[in-house]
Amino acid sequence: MPRLSQPIAPASTRVEFIVSPMLDMMNLMYFTSLVPQIEGVEGWPVRLRDEMSPDLLAELDALYTYPAGDPGFGGTLGDFLFAHPEAWPNIDALTAYIRGLPDGVGPSDTSPGIEGLIYQTTFRFLEEPEGASFAGLAHRAAVEARMRGLDDRDESAIMAIYDRPGELRERMAALVERFYREHYAPVLQERRRALEASVASHRNESGADPSELAGRLSGRGASCLEGQCGMDHERFIFTPSMDMGPYSSCAIVGAIHGTIYPLEPEFRPGGSVEGEAQVRQARLFKALSDEGRLGIVRLLRGREMYANEIVEATGLHQSVVSRHLSFMKAVGLVTARKQNNMKFYSINPGVRDEFGKMLDLFVPALSEGTPSRGR
């Protein structure tokens, strides 16, 4: 399929690069919770799961899966921080913001209360079952009805937490404080310097096309702004983070589109562009080392396919196919476009050049007079 044309941002669009250790820390917590759920997360999030106290890890996993799995209450809260710069500067500002969240639904969609965040988590990231409709239901009734449709969730336990918003608010604030104190504070200054160096390198890009920026910073060319999230936003906020592996994150909060992009290798302590190229190549080989993923590549050789087609053709469970496609997309092996609420996947044409570079690694050995067989 031809690549989608680049959309043009509205004339009033503002592109901003910001430094926020607190957004970086919340992103680190999110990816630490994702380690058992998705493939390809690497580095500190993996090590943290061995280093963290069992009770702290259990609480992190609980709040990043409540009420119905990834991204959970914690992940949704992290997204909404893009609309609340008062929470960006430091740990005191972040916990003050969390403890200031009201109990109920909240004053607006961009400033939800505790119950509003639970509602947003339930419906922003979960597909509605076919034939189900929650329109017109009160927030609590809608969450309760949605939970009844999930066979593997304890509806009564979920709603009990919904009805104790003050308890959930304090649990989240306590989790953030303890994670900061035990794990993030010791590396804060080093990470801040790295984040600041990245943002400083982009100081002249306030007029750049947001879609091009997002694609370039993610290292995959295409971004969620191409045919998925769209360009109808007044502000595009970009902030770096260090612990994302091949992934990037984005959030839409009202008129704001927020992107957390992987910190460039030249700004990482001990990092280099050459080393990053090797990491990228290793990720591609890892993506092809699984029989299921290799089978999906074979299916996509001739044409693009939507996710349910791939499920039917492979016989794999939908969750397995989804996990495979997420990893393959993250490393740049496949691309995705959204049309009529369906995602279509195809092989990334640029990956052929990448594999060509890998094959060049063997050329010198073949051209330096390798002895022929029988000599």
Question: How is this structure best described in words?
Answer:
The chain has 375 residues and is α/β, with parallel strands linked by helices. The chain is built from 17 helices and 7 strands. The strands form 2 sheets. A 4-stranded mixed sheet has the order 1-2-4-3, sandwiched between helices. Strands 5-7-6 form a 3-stranded antiparallel sheet. α3 packs across α9 and α5 packs antiparallel against α9. The longest helix has 20 residues. The N terminus is likely disordered.
Summarize the structure.
With 375 residues, the protein is of the alpha/beta class. A hairpin with a 2-residue loop joins strand 6 and strand 7 (342-347). The chain is 49% helix and 10% strand.
Overall average pLDDT = 84
| Strand segment tally | 7
Give me the Rg, rounded. Answer: 22 Å
Query: How far is it from the N-terminal to the C-terminal residue, by CA?
Result: 49 Å
Characterize the main sheet.
4 strands, mixed
Strand order of the largest sheet: 1-2-4-3
Number of helices: 17
Shape by Cα distribution: globular
Name the helicity range: 40-55%
Oligomer: single chain
Secondary-structure element sequence? Answer: EHHHHHHHHHHHEEEHHEHHEEHH
| Strand percent estimate | 5-15%
Class by helix and strand content?
A: alpha/beta
Task: Tell me the layout of helices and strands.
Blueprint: E1 14-17, H1 21-34, H2 44-51, H3 54-63, H4 72-80, H5 91-99, H6 114-124, H7 139-148, H8 155-162, H9 165-184, H10 188-201, H11 210-218, E2 235-241, E3 249-253, E4 256-262, H12 273-288, H13 291-299, E5 305-306, H14 307-314, H15 318-330, E6 334-339, E7 342-347, H16 350-360, H17 363-367
Parallel strand pairs: 1-2, 2-4
Antiparallel strand pairs: 3-4, 5-7, 6-7
